[in-house]
Design the sequence.
């Protein structure tokens, strides 16, 4: 690959291979070849003639050649598939269309036996009757001769009856005979008793709307809809008892220096401005008497804390102090610092110190190893259900006041009224 542009001589970009001045790439990938339409042979892009048949690049094969027929070979199955789909669609539409959709009327047809002639009720052929008296096949249809094309057909409309012909005798249903007596429905008999619709029977009881009976109870008075009336057998609901309010709690913080230790091994030093309520001694050999450094602890970054403590003694240790919590606290938090005066001392360069915290004899926290250049760090521990809390300084070389526990606080939730 070229390292310099072949046009201007400038160095090429090592990633893209492009010249920053000329812009086009200096190295192109090989272009795809071309296929001869006459013999379907694949040739290189640099070939101007087919390597198999010698046809030039851009040659168009005639229609009748093998290559021309192959180019249209795929059209036959495609056209056959389209015709088949179209035929199936037309068949599906025609086979699922109801017959009544064509005209909207019911198709009727009257079939007569071969050689028979339709006649009227008097036996006169329809051909011998005038046009006004010829029977209409659509009006007088013999029973069972109808063939309906739909499931529901409108009933034929009734037309008024025509007057009978002069030579045609009247039928019974056209006019009653002169000697025919009226039916009982038209003229009631003399001894006929009145029906129940004309007068009620003697044993029929009067309805409540006419007159109430003597033993009928009066209807109860209507109650407005907005008044809730309990049922007769329904017990009244008991009065709801008031739900007692949940007691409110407040967060109480208890400094560690306000608690008396239950056990200790070594000399404990308190760092605070306030005087202690018990005798103190700063003699490091007097391990029984606590020491008091009457100043607030300050770290190398200038942060001032309220109080602090550490353990020390004449030997390497380990030294520890234990407090009895009795499971009354929720959390324990504090800081581990390197005092400002120790940060300027050579002891912080030669030695390093740390402390450990135990809950019911189980190690739960180890502080940072404090020496020059190590910043202060904070911690928070969960002490719910813990009975004893122990702070221990392991037996290592150097003074233990390189790692001081500051602002150690125990917290718990107590009711507001306490």
Sequence:
């Amino acid at each position: 690959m070229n390292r310099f542009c072949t046009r201007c001589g400038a160095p090429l970009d090592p990633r893209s291979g492009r010249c920053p001045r000329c812009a086009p790439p200096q190295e192109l990938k090989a272009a795809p070849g071309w296929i001869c339409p006459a013999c379907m042979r694949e040739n290189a892009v640099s070939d101007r003639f087919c390597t198999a048949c010698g046809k030039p690049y851009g040659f168009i094969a005639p229609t009748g050649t093998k290559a021309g027929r192959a180019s249209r070979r795929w059209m036959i199955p495609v056209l056959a598939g389209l015709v088949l789909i179209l035929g199936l669609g037309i068949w599906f539409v025609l086979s699922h269309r109801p017959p009544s959709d064509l005209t909207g009327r019911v198709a009727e047809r009257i079939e007569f036996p071969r050689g028979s002639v339709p006649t009227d009720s008097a036996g006169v052929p329809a051909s011998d009757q005038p046009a006004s008296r010829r029977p209409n096949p659509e009006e007088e249809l013999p029973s069972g001769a109808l063939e309906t094309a739909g499931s529901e057909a409108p009933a034929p409309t009734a037309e008024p009856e025509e007057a009978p012909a002069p030579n045609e005798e009247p039928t019974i249903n056209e006019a009653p005979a002169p000697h025919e007596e009226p039916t009982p429905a038209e003229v009631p008999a003399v001894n006929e008793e009145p029906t129940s619709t004309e007068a009620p029977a003697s044993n029929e009881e009067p309805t409540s709307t006419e007159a109430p009976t003597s033993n009928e109870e009066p209807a109860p008075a209507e109650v407005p809809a907005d008044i809730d009336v309990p049922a007769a057998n329904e017990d009244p609901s008991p009065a709801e008892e008031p739900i007692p309010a949940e007691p409110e709690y407040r967060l109480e913080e208890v400094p560690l220096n306000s608690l008396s230790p239950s056990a200790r091994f070594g000399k404990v030093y308190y760092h605070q401005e306030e005087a202690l309520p018990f005798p103190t001694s700063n003699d490091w050999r007097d391990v029984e008497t606590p020491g008091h450094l009457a100043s607030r602890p300050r770290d190398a970054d200038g942060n001032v804390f309220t109080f602090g403590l550490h353990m020390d003694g004449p030997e390497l240790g380990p030294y520890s102090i234990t407090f009895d919590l009795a499971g009354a606290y929720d959390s324990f938090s504090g800081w581990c610092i390197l005092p400002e005066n120790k940060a300027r001392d050579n002891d912080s360069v030669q030695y390093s110190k740390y402390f450990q915290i135990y809950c019911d004899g189980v190690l739960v926290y180890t502080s940072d190893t404090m020496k020059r250049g190590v910043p202060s760090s904070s911690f928070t521990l969960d002490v719910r259900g813990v009975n004893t809390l122990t702070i221990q300084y392991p037996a290592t070389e150097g003074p233990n006041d390189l790692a001081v526990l500051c602002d150690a606080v125990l917290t718990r939730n107590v009711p507001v009224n306490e």
Remarks:
- The CA atoms of residues 212 and 353 lie 110 Å apart.
- The longest helix spans residues 75-95.
- The helical segments are 66-71, 75-95, 340-343, 347-350.
- The first strand starts at residue 34 and ends at 35.
